[in-house]
From TrEMBL:
SUPFAM superfamilies: Protein kinase-like (PK-like). It comes from the Eukaryota. It holds the Pfam family APH. This is Aminoglycoside phosphotransferase domain-containing protein.
Length: 194
């Protein structure tokens, strides 16, 4: 169980989580093989689909091959043009490829006496663009306000991936079993004329 949000910044759990994320993200990427892949160089699992979308390994991120795979999963194809506009600032940036857990929710972080005992459930883990851990963390804990506040206190991502989160949110509204049909959300920016 995570402690209350109002713990000091040097609280043991916050320090240990910062350290664990720093260590994970500093693991060197494989020197050969695909840049974006699971831990064994194979397909990655994308959590937006009930049957778990498998994305094949991608050799480079610089030519947006990875991002094109994400667009191929969009259920509401009428949104593609709008999604590409939202994606433009994200896809124009260079990103480090970092080792990523991709499923950091409370059930996967075992805590005892305010110490991280283990991080479990690594099926989504792999090598991803550096923003992926943050966008997946936010989207998977979307309706859990204390969690959002807790991760802000961990302070690892400090709001540096705002455009990436905007794109991820739009993709979640448009993809797989997580999609939201046009017109369901009042004033959905994806349904507004360009």
């Amino acid at each position: 169980m995570f402690p209350e949000v109002n713990v000091p910044d040097d609280h043991t759990l916050l320090v240990e989580l910062r350290d664990a994320l720093t260590q994970l993200r500093s693991l060197p990427a494989p020197l050969s093989g695909p840049q974006i892949s699971n831990t064994n160089g194979g397909p990655t699992i994308w959590a937006r689909c009930k049957d778990r979308c498998l994305l094949p390994p991608v050799n480079t991120i610089t030519d947006s091959e990875f991002h094109e795979l994400l667009f191929q999963q969009v259920s509401w194809t009428s949104r593609l043009e709008r999604l590409r506009l939202i994606a433009k600032p994200v896809h124009s940036r260079d990103y480090r490829i970092t080792f990523t857990h991709s499923d950091l929710n409370p059930e996967n972080i075992l805590v005892k006496d305010d110490h991280v005992v283990a991080i479990i459930d690594w099926e989504f883990a792999g090598w991803y663009p550096e923003y992926w851990e943050y966008t997946q963390l936010v989207m998977q804990n979307l309706h859990i306000r204390p969690q959002e506040e807790f991760w802000k206190r961990v302070g690892f991502f400090s709001g540096q991936y705002i455009e990436e989160l905007k794109l991820e949110r739009a993709l979640w509204h448009s993809t797989g079993d997580m999609y939201i049909a046009p017109g369901v959300i009042p004033n959905d920016y994806l349904d507004q004329p360009m």
